[in-house]
Amino acid sequence: MPATEPNDWSPCPHCGFDLPPNARVCRECGFSDDYVDSGDSYDPHDDDFDYDDFVARAFPQHGEADSPASRRQMWIRMIILAIIGSFVLSLLLT
Ligand SMILES: [Zn+2]
Question: Residues of the chain whose pLDDT is less than 50?
């Protein structure tokens, strides 16, 4: 008499490995059932995946810093810092 009932087992949707009825995670490939249920899972292999768009949405500050106006402000700030820095250096060295 078999200890298991094959009919209740379902294949892993990822690798096809037979899983027990209540298995949430595949023992063979680690595929998780919860992953599928979330529906909105991030797929790095999606052809339509727009990395720049993803970064802009995930890191709003980063996307803002990439805009031309913010970049100009950043340069102006760096130049001012450089001028102040060289001024302080000249004071220290004289
Ligand atoms: Zn699997």
Answer: 35-36, 38-39
